[in-house]
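Tokens for chain A. Residues wanted.
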């Protein structure tokens, strides 16, 4: 009988002749251990980068198709959320009044919108609930997306 390149015939012969040790007597290492099976940094897989948080577009159009009033609702809502920032609110002479990068008003295709970054949920869940309930209570259209920056102009 010829042995194959993988040695499967050899293993079968050991089993037939009784020279193979039964699995019940083999010391097996558990699958989950506290240490790596190889040195750190050698052949290990890099962790995936965290995906960019999603953004929600609250549009100034109701589910019925009517324009939401008052006309400055987006600025008011974003202004109420201005203190919720990554890293907290700055203090002192360097602090300034402005919108939070997590909740900004925009006009897209002539429609007033507020773009809310999902990271707001991690920073302050109650602020996130406030903004989402505002959209729900006023029956505003809500779209989940990710704002893609415009490409730089090509030089000719």
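Reply:
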């Amino acid at each position: 009988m010829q042995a194959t390149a993988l040695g499967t015939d050899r293993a079968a012969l050991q089993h037939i002749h009784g020279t193979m040790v039964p699995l019940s007597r083999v010391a097996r290492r558990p699958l989950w251990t506290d240490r790596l099976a190889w040195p750190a940094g050698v052949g290990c897989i890099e962790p995936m980068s965290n995906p960019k948080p999603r953004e929600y577009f609250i549009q100034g159009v109701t589910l019925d198709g009517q324009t939401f009033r008052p006309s400055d609702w987006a600025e008011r809502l974003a202004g109420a959320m201005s203190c919720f920032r990554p890293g907290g609110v700055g203090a002192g002479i360097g602090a300034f009044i402005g919108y939070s990068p997590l909740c900004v008003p925009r006009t897209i295709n002539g429609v007033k919108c507020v773009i809310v970054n999902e990271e707001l949920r991690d920073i302050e869940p109650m602020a996130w609930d406030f903004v989402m309930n505002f959209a729900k209570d006023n029956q505003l259209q809500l779209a989940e997306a990710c704002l893609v920056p415009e490409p730089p102009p090509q030089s000719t």
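Strands lie at 55-62, 103-108, 111-117, 140-145. The mean pLDDT is 75.
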